[in-house]
User: Fold these one by one.
Assistant:
Number 1:
Amino acid sequence: MADELLGLLNNAIAREIGVSVQYMWQHVMALGMKSPEIKDIFEDIAIDEMKHAEKIAERLFYLGGTPTTKPTPIKVGGSLKEMIEANLKAENEAIEMYTKIIGLASEKGDSTTRLLFEEILTAEEEHKHTFTILLK
């Protein structure tokens, strides 16, 4: 079971690295009349995601694992709408994964990992909310 938790933490790191690059490239590539404010949102969330990757990597290393350096696939998108839809999907996937990690950490009695992911889950839910509003 410990191996399962370490594997999930590495999956979370890969996801955080991937979306931080995805959102930062979207920040660079966003065009159109609505892009100035959206570019800033992409950049801010990209930075949040990189901080999450760092915190998760520190926890994984503490638990005896080796943090991955390979991101999940990056989906930059084309239009602003396609970018935001891809981001919303990524946030939904993160929420699902982090809920599973919280449950497993709780089951294993690892309150530190559980608390870390509860904190990160809150941020991911805020990101989901932001992207949902941008699609309206």
Number 2:
Amino acid sequence: MVYLVEDFYSIQGEGKFAGTPSIFFRFGGCNLRCPSFGDHFIKGKLVYGCDSVHAVNRKLFAKEWRQVGRRELVEILKSHLEHLDFKPHVVLTGGEPLLYWEDPEFAGFVEELVDRGLIVTIETNGTIEVDFAKYGAYREVIFALAVKLSNSGEPYEARVNRKAIDAIIRNTQYSFFKFTLSRNLIDLRAYDEIVDIIAPYPEVEVFCMPLGDRIEELRKHDKAVAEFCLIHGFIYSDRLQVRLWNRERRR
């Protein structure tokens, strides 16, 4: 079963295509919890974890999760496209959208997007291995590999899957790494952690962005991350959605 949490039209806020008009499909569920990220007051409780906590915590946000199939996803896509006179990018995000990669409804939707000639990005934590021989449409997708570092609070063996990363990079024409950095991690071991992950792929672009889904939190880390990129030759990525809308949900 495929669960969609929300869909909206906005600009891409992060990574290679920052600033690009995009239709977002946010799918529910994740195989990681990243307990060191984010703090949210929800129903009077303090909840830590993903900045898209509503796409991870089904228990607290059950009313926002709805089961969908390919047909409904295509209708949602059409409802966005009918207001535009150009082809926007399409972003499949979460949570972790690759939880559904084998589901015929999700895979069929990806195939539909590719057949329509749309530029598609799947934002993934890079821990789930895709069979590109079985589902060829994924070869035409751009993968934003947001592999988690130790500042996520996840153990190494949970957050780094070398076979999954390798399969994505070897089977796609273009994908990129996108790391979330905190000031403290930079002071300790960020460079070593990143190099450990990217070393086999010198041709793949590396974006680093500051931790924070609130403007005040982003400001604690942004300059340190920019300096880190200047020193090591990585590409700085801001988080435009935070700068523009803070924690406001896009609809």
